Amino acid sequence: MTPPFLTAATNLARKYNFHVDSVISIAGLYGIEETENILKAIKSPGKRYFIRVNTLKASREEVLAELKHAGFEVRAYPLLKEAIYLPIRGPHSIKTYPKKVIADKKAAESVYLGANLYAVGILKIVGKIREGERVTIMDPTGFPVAEGIMVMGPEEVFSKRKGLAVKTVKSVFEVPSIRELEIYKRGWVYDQSLPAIISVRNLNPRPGFKIVDLCAAPGGKTSHAAQLMENSGEILAVDRSKPKVQKLRENLQRLGVRNVKILEADARYLDLIVGERDFDAAIVDPPCSSLGVRPKLSSRVSKRDILSLSRYQFQFLKVASKLVKRGGRILYSTCTLTLQENELIVLKAIKKLGLKLVKQEYFIGSRGFIFETGIVQRFLPHVHDTPGFFIAILEKL
C-alpha cells in the first residue's frame, strides 16, 4: 500500500466519517476518485424511492391509481411488473439555530429523510430549550439533518425516554411516508430497494417450490418469493431474534402470505434442526457491514469487522448448500461493497461447497470482480441510483 494511497484514503475517511479500513476496502477495488463518488452518493438516499407491489392483493395499476389519487407523483418501473417508484426531494439547506438536539446515528438518518425525532433517539440537548422553540437536529458528528420544533421539554425527554420530542419541519431530504398510507396497512405494497427486488427475481421461485430463507426478517425477500410462488408451495423462514421474528410475522400477515412456516432459530445450525434436504431454493441474505446502505452519515466498520462478518456469512452458505437438493439454487446477496463479503465468499463456496454460479436473467447492475461478465452483479450508488448491493445465484452440483 503506497503512502499517497493511504493518505488519500485517510482524508476520505475523515471527510465522510467512515473508518479508514472501510474506505481502503472500497478504494482497493475502485480507486480513490471513484470511492469518493461512492461515499458522496451513500450520504444521500438517491433520487428514487422504490416500492414492491404485492400482487397477492393488488395489481400495479390499482396501486398506481391509489397513489396518484392521494397526490403522489409515482412511476412504474419498466423492467419489473411489481416495481414502482416515487421521487425523493432534496437536498435542502438546513438552518443552524443556536439551540441544537443531537440524535443517535439511527434516529438522525431517519430524521434526515423527514421523520420526526422521538425521545428515545436523543443523545444530547445543547442550550436551554423550551417547548415550541426551533432547533437544529444533528447527528452525533455534528452534521445537521433537519430543522424542528420542540414538543417536549428536556427534563421530560430524559426522564420518560419515549414519545415525540421534536417535530421535523424541514429535513435535508423528503422521502414519501408510504407506511402511513392505507394501501400499506392493507398490505398492497412493501417498501424495498430495487436490487433486493431484482435479487429474488433472479432466484426465480415458481409455484409449488419449497424454499428456505435463512435470514428472513423483516420478510422482504420471503414475501416476494411467496408472491412469485402465488402463495403455493412452502417457505421455511428462519431468524434467531425474537423481535425480528415478530416483525416478520406481522409483515407476512399484513401482506396476506399463507405459505410460510416461521422458525425462531440460529440458521447456521439449521441442518441439525430440520431433516429436509430437498429444498428447491435457498435465500441467504446475511448480516453484513452494510457499507452500501443509503443514506449513511457515518460508519465505524473496521477490517476486523469485515473479516469477522465474512466468516459469519459463509456459515449460512454452508448450511444452505446442505439443505438444497441437487440442481437447487441459492440466492446470496448483501448490501455492502467489500470483496471479502461478496466475490471471495462466492469463490470459497464454489471451491468448498460443490456449487457453481449461474447467469442472472435480470442484470442491470455492473459486473463484479473475479468472475466473468454477467455472472455476479454489483449495484453502485452513484452509477445505478440504488443502494450498494451484490447478487450471486449459485446452483448445487
Short description:
The chain is built from 14 helices and 19 strands. By secondary structure, it is of the alpha+beta class.
Task: Characterize the structure shown.
This protein is α+β, with helices and mostly antiparallel strands and 397 residues long. α1 packs across α2 (20-30) and α2 (20-30) crosses α3. The strands form 3 sheets. Strands 11, 12, 13, 14, 15, 16, 17, 18 and 19 form a 9-stranded mixed sheet that branches. The chain contains 14 helices and 19 strands. It has helices at residues 3-16, 20-30, 32-42, 60-69, 105-111, 154-160, 182-185, 194-203, 220-228, 242-255, 270-273, 303-323, 343-352, 381-384, and strands at residues 48-53, 75-76, 83-87, 100-103, 117-118, 122-126, 134-138, 144-150, 164-171, 189-191, 210-213, 234-239, 260-264, 279-284, 324-334, 355-357, 366-367, 376-379, 389-396. The protein folds into 4 domains: 3-42; 48-88 and 176-185, Alpha-Beta Plaits; 100-171, Roll (Archaeosine Trna-guanine Transglycosylase, Chain: A, domain 4); 192-396, 3-Layer(aba) Sandwich (Rossmann fold). The mean pLDDT is 97. 45% of the residues are buried.
Low-confidence stretches: none
Give me the CATH architecture of the largest domain, please. Answer: 3-Layer(aba) Sandwich
Beta-strand content estimate: 15-25%
Mean pLDDT: 97
CATH level-1 class of the largest domain: Alpha Beta
Number of strands: 19
Class from helix and strand fractions = alpha+beta
Total domain count? 4
Cα-based radius of gyration, to the nearest Å = 22 Å
Count of separate DSSP helical elements: 14
Coarse shape: globular
Q: What is the CATH homologous superfamily assignment of the largest domain? A: Vaccinia Virus protein VP39
Please give the largest β-sheet. Answer: 9 strands, mixed
